[in-house]
Amino acid sequence: MDKIAKDVGDIQSRLLDHRPVINAEIRYFVREFEEKRGHRESRLLENLNKIVTETNEQMLPTDLEGMLSNVFTRLDAANHMAERVQQRELEAQQSTQLQGSMERLKEEWAEFLKEQQRLKEEVDEEHAKAVGQLSTTYNEKKNDLTKFSPL
């Protein structure tokens, strides 16, 4: 029984305990990386770092403040131009709206004048009828007075 327990323990440690295999793989990787390649990757990384720093020094301007002020000046000019374009477009739109309103008002005024002329003609007709009726009435009364008057 002890032998079976020992065998089961050995089998369990081999199946579930991966530390010896992992340690062997790590040692192999380190030996492969450091010894056989001879720090080739680290030299390559150092060269790349050197190239990047040189490029940064060459590409970045030394007068960053002057460059930023130049960019801000151009940005302000662009904003000013955009505002002017928007203002012109707004004025043009308001001008077309104003012209449309003027046209509409002229049409309404013409309609108003036509209506006033029509009303004036109606009043003139009524006035003429009233004057005619009054004239006939007064003429009749005048005639009645002349009939009854002794002169």
UniProtKB/TrEMBL annotation:
<dbReference type="GO" id="GO:0030133">
    <property type="term" value="C:transport vesicle"/>
</dbReference>
<dbReference type="Pfam" id="PF14942">
    <property type="entry name" value="Muted"/>
</dbReference>
<feature type="region of interest" description="Disordered">
    <location>
        <begin position="124"/>
        <end position="151"/>
    </location>
</feature>
<comment type="similarity">
    <text>Belongs to the BLOC1S5 family.</text>
</comment>
<dbReference type="InterPro" id="IPR017243">
    <property type="entry name" value="Bloc1s5"/>
</dbReference>
<protein>
    <recommendedName>
        <fullName>Biogenesis of lysosome-related organelles complex 1 subunit 5</fullName>
    </recommendedName>
</protein>
<dbReference type="GO" id="GO:0031083">
    <property type="term" value="C:BLOC-1 complex"/>
</dbReference>
